[in-house]
Specification:
Elements: H1 2-145
Length: 153
Amino acid sequence: MGQIFGQVGQAFVQAIPTVIFIVILVFILKRILFRPLADVLKNREEQTKGALVRAKERTALAASKAEQYEAVWQKARQEIHSLRETDRRAAVAEREEIIRQARERAEGQVRDAQASLGAQAESAKRELAPASASLAEEIVGTVLAGPGSGLTH
């Protein structure tokens, strides 16, 4: 057993340069490769998180601007509708005023025509009254005289 321990001890002594070499290699690899690689990965992760945060902020800003745009668009639509309604009401009022004036003119013309017709009828009655009286006398005379009386006018 002592010989085994001696061989194991000799193997350890022979392995010391290899272990030192591996420790130095690990230290060098950590310094030269793993630490910069870890720094790059960490930086990359931070940039990715930052890009995500900026993207979320921009998305929120875009949504806010879209809401503002929609509000402005809705307000403009309401203003246009209001202007249209105002114009429509003004046009209806103007049309009603034109119709009222035309109706008044027509009623005035009808009154004038009725008055003119009434005056013409009165004038015709005055002109025809003497003629109708003489015509009535002539008719009465003709009827009374009869066909066999021989009276002719």
